[in-house]
C-alpha cells in the first residue's frame, strides 16, 4: 500500500478555499502552472474534477463540497501532530544545503543568504553547484540537491516551483568603449566582436535567435565558461558581452569598470524561480531556506 501524498491535501484545501488555481498558488507560494499540475493529480487521485468552470469563475463539485470540512479537519490534526517540530531550534541544526543556482541569483542575493545562514543557522553549510540541465530534475528527485534556482523551465510534474524575480539582457562593455559615444543601433551592436558564455563551448544562444529575426548575426571572438570570467575579459578589449542586468549591476557595485546599455532589439524577460521536490515540502530547515530566499525578492518588488 502506497503512502498518500500529504502535499495534495494541502493543495486541495487551498483550492477549495480559494476556488481558484491562481488563488491557491499564491496561498502556497507556488506558480500557477505548478498548482495546475497539482490539481490534475488531485483529480486523478479522487476521480473527480474538484473545480469546474462556471463562466469566469470556478466552482467546486458536489464531491469537493462534501469533503471540504473533512479536509480542513485532517490538516488541523496534521498541524497539531507536527507542532513540536515547528518549534525546532534552528540554531542547533547541523545541515548542508546544496543549491544548484545560476550566477544571477548568487550575484543578487548570495551575500544576503550567507549572512542569514550565519545569523540564524550558524551550524549549517551552503554548497552551491552549477546547473546541469538534463539532470536537474533527477538531482531534485534523488535529494542530491535541495533547491534549483535558475531560469524557469520545464521540470518534473511533481516539482514545486515558486517565482522569485525577473531580469533581462543588457549589453556590457568597458566603461570607455567607443560604442557608448552615440545611439546604439542593431548594426553597431553586431559590428563589434562579442564574448559569449557557455560551459559547453556553444557559440549560439538566445541572443542569436533574437538577432536572426532581424537578419543579423554577431561575430564571436571568445567563449567564456562563466559570467565573471567574461566580465574580466572585456575590461581591456573592445568586445561586447550580453548579460542579465543583475550581473552587470553587481559588477558595477563592486567597482569593476564596465557600463551596460539597453539592447537595440526586443528580448524576453527571464523569470528566475526556486524549485524543490515535495519530499522537502514540510521539512522545517528547508522551509526556512525557501522562505528566506523568497523574502529577499519580495523586499525588492
Automatic annotation (TrEMBL):
GO molecular function: DNA binding; DNA-binding transcription factor activity
InterPro entries associated with the record: LysR-type_TF, LysR_HTH_N, LysR_subst-bd, WH-like_DNA-bd_sf, WH_DNA-bd_sf
Residues of the HTH lysR-type domain: 4-61
Residue ranges of coiled coil: none
SUPFAM superfamilies linked: Periplasmic binding protein-like II, Winged helix' DNA-binding domain
Extent of the signal sequence: none
Keywords: DNA-binding, Transcription, Transcription regulation
Taxonomy, superkingdom: Bacteria
PROSITE patterns: HTH_LYSR (PS50931)
Pfam annotation, one family: LysR_substrate
Family, as annotated: Belongs to the LysR transcriptional regulatory family.
Stated name of the protein: Transcriptional regulator
Organism annotation: Providencia heimbachae ATCC 35613
Lineage: Bacteria, Pseudomonadati, Pseudomonadota, Gammaproteobacteria, Enterobacterales
Amino acid at each position: 500500500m502506497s503512502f498518500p501524498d500529504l502535499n495534495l491535501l494541502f493543495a486541495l484545501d487551498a483550492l477549495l478555499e480559494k476556488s481558484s488555481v491562481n488563488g491557491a498558488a499564491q496561498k502556497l507560494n507556488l506558480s500557477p502552472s505548478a498548482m495546475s499540475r497539482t490539481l490534475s493529480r488531485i483529480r486523478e487521485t479522487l476521480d473527480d474534477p474538484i473545480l469546474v468552470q462556471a463562466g469566469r469563475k470556478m466552482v467546486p463539485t458536489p464531491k469537493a463540497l462534501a469533503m471540504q470540512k473533512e479536509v480542513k479537519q485532517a490538516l488541523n490534526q496534521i498541524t497539531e501532530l507536527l507542532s513540536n517540530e515547528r518549534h525546532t531550534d534552528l540554531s542547533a541544526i547541523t545541515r548542508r544545503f546544496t543549491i544548484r543556482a545560476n550566477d544571477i541569483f548568487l550575484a543578487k542575493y548570495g551575500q544576503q543568504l550567507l549572512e542569514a545562514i550565519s545569523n540564524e543557522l550558524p551550524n549549517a553549510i551552503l554548497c552551491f553547484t552549477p546547473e546541469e540541465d538534463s539532470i536537474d530534475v533527477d538531482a531534485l528527485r534523488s535529494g542530491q540537491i535541495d533547491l534549483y534556482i535558475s531560469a524557469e523551465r520545464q521540470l518534473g510534474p511533481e516539482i514545486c516551483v515558486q517565482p522569485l524575480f525577473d531580469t533581462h539582457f543588457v549589453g556590457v562593455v568597458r566603461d570607455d568603449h567607443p560604442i557608448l559615444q552615440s545611439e546604439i543601433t542593431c548594426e553597431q551592436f553586431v559590428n563589434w566582436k562579442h564574448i559569449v558564455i557557455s560551459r559547453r563551448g556553444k557559440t549560439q544562444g538566445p541572443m542569436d535567435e533574437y538577432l536572426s529575426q532581424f537578419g543579423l548575426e554577431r561575430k564571436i571572438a571568445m567563449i567564456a565558461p562563466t559570467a565573471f570570467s567574461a566580465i574580466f575579459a572585456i575590461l581591456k578589449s573592445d568586445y561586447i558581452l550580453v548579460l542579465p542586468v543583475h550581473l552587470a549591476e553587481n559588477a558595477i557595485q563592486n567597482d569593476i569598470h564596465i557600463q551596460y546599455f539597453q539592447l537595440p532589439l526586443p528580448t524576453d524577460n527571464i523569470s528566475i524561480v526556486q524549485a524543490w521536490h515535495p519530499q522537502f515540502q514540510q521539512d522545517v530547515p528547508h522551509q526556512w531556506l525557501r522562505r528566506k530566499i523568497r523574502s529577499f525578492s519580495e523586499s525588492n518588488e
